[in-house]
Design goal:
Elements: H1 3-6, H2 18-32, H3 42-45, H4 63-73
C-alpha cells in the first residue's frame, strides 16, 4: 500500500504520487542489501573480517507457533497439506468468581 494511501492523503485506486514511487524504490534497494535468510546487512554479513563476531542466542519458543505446529501435524498426510492455513488465538481471559 502506498504511503500516501496509508496516511490518508489520497484514496486507493488514485494515481500513485511520485513520492510513493521513490519510497518504493528506496525500500526495494534497502531490502536488496539484506541477507534474505537472517536479515542482516550483506556488507557486514559477508565480511570475512567479521566472521567470528556473530553469536546466536538460545532459541525462544513462540507459543502460538507451537500450537499451530501441533494442530498441523494431524494434517501432514492429507491432500495438499501445504495448502492448509492454521491460526492461533488467545483464549478468553478466565473470569474469577465474585464470591
Amino acid at each position: 500500500m502506498p504511503l500516501s494511501v496509508a496516511s490518508g492523503r489520497r484514496s486507493p485506486g488514485d494515481k500513485w504520487h511520485p513520492r510513493d514511487w521513490l519510497l518504493l524504490q528506496a525500500l526495494d534497494a534497502y531490502e536488496r542489501m539484506l541477507c534474505p535468510s537472517c536479515g542482516h546487512m550483506l556488507t557486514e554479513a559477508m565480511d570475512p573480517e567479521l566472521q567470528n563476531e556473530w553469536v546466536a542466542p538460545l532459541p525462544m519458543r513462540c507459543h502460538p507457533c507451537t500450537v499451530i505446529d501441533a494442530r498441523a501435524e494431524a494434517y501432514r498426510e492429507s491432500e495438499s497439506p501445504n495448502a492448509l492455513r492454521f491460526a492461533a488465538h488467545r483464549r478468553a481471559p478466565r473470569r474469577e468468581n465474585a464470591s
